Each structure stands twice: as C-alpha cells, then as structure tokens.
Amino acid sequence: MALFRKLGGWAGLIRLDIVTLAFAFRHPATPWYVRGLCLLGVAYLLSPVNLASYFIPLVGMIDDALIVAGVIWLALRLMPAQAREESQVRAKAWLARFKTWLRNGALVVVLYVLVFGGGLLYLLWHLLGS
C-alpha cells in the first residue's frame, strides 16, 4: 500500500513538472534552448523510431521513461529561476482547477447514467409489465 502511495506522489510531481514546462514554454524569459529541449522530448515520445526497441519487453518503455524524465529534469534545471517559479505557480493553479473540473465532470456523468438508466428501466418496466 505504501508503494502505491509513493508512486502516486511521484506521478503527481511528474504531472506538475510537465504542466510547469508547458507554461514555461510560453513564458518570455524561457531561453530558446530550453524550448528546443522540450520540443525534442515531445518529438522523441511521438516518434516511431526509438533508441531501444519495443520488441524486447519493457526495455522500450523504460527507455522512453528515462529519456523523458531526463529531458524534464534538464529543462527545469536550465530554465531561469524566475520563469520556473512563475510557471510552477500557474501550473499549480491550473491543476487545482482541473481537479475541480474533473470531479464535476465525473458527477455529471454519474447523474447522466442514473437519470437515463432510471428512465430506461422505467420504460422497460412499463413495456414488459403490460
């Protein structure tokens, strides 16, 4: 159970770092080489050509994870402190809004299923009962 909690914490940090880089990409103080590094990382992820093949189980995925983690780490270290801090504040606010939006969206889906599912059951009850 503690392992899943740790993995969830790491996933949250990676999510924050990725959103921080997305905001930093558009920040005027972010240097061109950091933007280029971010583009190279995304291009590598989307590219069908990889350094390690997917034919060997897990090696291709581990390769992608290590390269992307390295790109994130390097881009955050090369970025000026002001741009990183401002982007991180914006990323935290965006993620907080997204969590609320996701929770509200899930509630809408559940209500939708309950209302239309209940209506369908009501209709079937009256059609089969008569």
Number of helices: 4
SSE order: HHHH
* Low-pLDDT segments, ≥5 res: none
Instruction: Please compute the radius of gyration using only Cα atoms.
Output: 22 Å
Distance between the termini: 52 Å
Q: What's the average pLDDT?
A: 82
Strand content: under 5%
| Sheet with most strands | none
Subcellular location: Endomembrane system
Protein name: DUF1232 domain-containing protein
Pfam family, one: DUF1232
Domain DUF1232: 35-69
Question: What would you say this structure looks like, in words?
Answer:
This protein is an all-alpha fold and 130 residues long. Helices cover 83% and strands 0% of the residues. It has 4 helices and no strands. Helix 1 (2-25) crosses helix 3, helix 1 (2-25) crosses helix 4 (81-129) and helix 2 (32-46) runs antiparallel to helix 3. The longest helix has 49 residues, at 81-129. It is elongated. The N and C termini lie far apart (52 Å). Keywords: Membrane, Transmembrane, Transmembrane helix. It is a multi-pass membrane protein. Its main location: membrane. The chain crosses the membrane at residues 6-25, 55-80, 101-125. It is found in: Endomembrane system.
